[in-house]
Specification:
The structure holds 2 protein chains of 2 kinds.
Chain A (H helix, E strand, L loop, with lengths): L4 H4 L7 H4 L2 H20 L1 H8 L9 E8 L8 E10 L2 E12 L2 E5 L11 E3 L4 E3 L6 E2 L5 E3 L8 E2 L1 E4 L2 E7 L1
Antiparallel strand pairs in A: 1-11, 2-3, 3-4, 4-9, 5-6, 6-7, 7-8, 10-11
Chain B lengths: L1 H12 L1 H9 L13 H19 L10 H10 L4 H29 L7 H23 L4 H15 L5 H9 L6 H33 L6
Helix pairs in contact in B: 3-5, 4-5, 5-6, 6-7, 6-9, 7-8
Chain lengths: 168, 216
């Protein structure tokens, strides 16, 4: 059967609805309704996506990790401990150092890509094993790829205990 | 009241006629499911338009922040992972459905006179889609996209005569960097959609003008 294009677009004569039976019209309307409903449902995830989200507030928790007298007058005290974060046990290390009367704490995470740095006692530097980033005693970046000094963590003293703040 | 509003809109826009042409058209005999792939491709393209528009709300096309914004979309934005995954998966599906569509037209001989111009437009549309895929691949700005683009640029460079100049044109600098990213971003979200829109309009207009091919 050959149909020319004029026939395809023919709009005179009975419309599609008139040519159908009543039940078929109902079925067609029902399907149309469902399709429109589905299209409306599409807007819910879209609204969810475009509605801006407040950044999750990370709060500081302070953990007692060591007695004050155990920190040496010179050099670095490495303290390992663990804490619970969202139901999981997390192992953490901080580097403590006296500076005058106060105590400073450094995070162990390299500012380049977040590997854990180690302290080399003899050379008195922190070295990152991943790409050879180096930091001095105060955490200042002195060599390799790190863009920033090691992050300082807040320290509080309570009696003779040292408390170090960690963001969770 | 709704009826009156619809009548008014129809009197001004004539949308009912277009609705009938689109959705209540009489189709010739001998149509099968392979005829759907052009329409599926168009639907996927609309999906790309929608998800791409959504992603552009959060994406930052800069050297330092592109990957960061991608991580933000994927892990922080509600349903961000879903929208981004739909966008990247659909780009692959779109190429597949386009190939099936092209194969159907070719096998059926539907490209023959008087539809040869529409075939050419279709080929241009396919190339535009490939360009979409190529430029979009750089935008995550991770290792894979960086090196994939390096390979692509080197392929352009190996063209005879104008290879070096073309590569320079696409990179916007001596090597792939922030300017290349910006260039690809602009192509991906501005230039290519405009070109594709015009080509698609021509494509569909010619289908309406010439009707469906019914050769077999």
């Amino acid at each position: 059967m050959v149909i020319n294009s004029k026939d395809l677009l023919r709009l005179e004569g009975p419309s599609v609805d008139e040519a159908l039976e009543e039940r078929e019209v109902f079925l067609k309307k029902a399907i149309q309704f469902l399709v429109y409903l589905l299209a409306l449902l599409f807007f819910i995830p879209i609204l969810l996506f475009i509605y801006p989200k407040e950044p999750r507030r990370r709060r500081w928790i302070f953990l007692e990790i060591i007695e004050e007298e155990k920190i040496p007058e010179k050099g670095i005290k490495t303290v390992s401990f663990s804490y619970r974060r969202r139901g999981r046990e997390v192992a953490m290390t901080v580097f403590l150092r006296r500076e005058g009367r106060s105590i400073k704490a450094l995070s162990p995470y390299c500012t380049h890509l977040g590997c854990r740095v180690v302290f080399r006692r003899r050379e008195e530097i922190f070295v990152c094993p991943c790409h050879g980033g180096r930091y001095d005693l105060r955490g200042k970046n002195i060599g390799g790829p790190p863009p920033r000094p090691l992050t300082s963590l807040p320290v509080k003293l309570k009696g003779d205990k040292v408390l170090v703040g960690i963001r969770v | 009241l709704i009826r009156q509003l619809a009548d008014y809109l129809d009197s001004r826009l004539g949308y009912r006629r277009h609705y009938q042409i689109l959705f209540e058209r009489r189709l010739p005999a001998g149509i099968n499911y392979f005829h759907c792939f052009g329409g599926i491709s168009f639907f996927l393209l609309l999906l790309q338009l929608l998800t791409g528009a959504l992603l552009s709300l959060y994406y930052v096309p800069s050297e330092a922040e592109a990957y960061q914004s991608l991580l933000y979309i994927h892990y922080q934005v509600r349903l961000g992972w879903l929208v981004r995954s739909i966008h990247s998966w659909t780009s692959s599906f779109l190429l597949i459905t386009l190939m099936v569509h092209t194969a159907r037209v070719f096998i059926q001989g539907a490209y023959k006179n008087p539809r040869e111009l529409n075939w050419i437009i279709g080929v241009l549309l396919f190339l535009a889609t490939l360009a979409f895929a190529f430029t979009g691949y750089l935008l995550p700005w991770n290792q894979r996209s960086y090196w994939a683009t390096t390979v692509g640029i080197n392929m352009i460079r190996s063209l005879p005569l104008l290879g070096d100049q073309l590569a320079y044109l696409f990179m916007g600098a001596e090597e792939i960097g922030g300017l290349t990213l910006l260039r690809f971003y602009s192509l991906h979200v501005l230039w290519l959609p405009i070109v594709t829109g015009i080509l698609l309009w021509l494509h569909f207009h010619m289908i309406r003008q010439q009707g469906l091919a019914n050769h077999l």
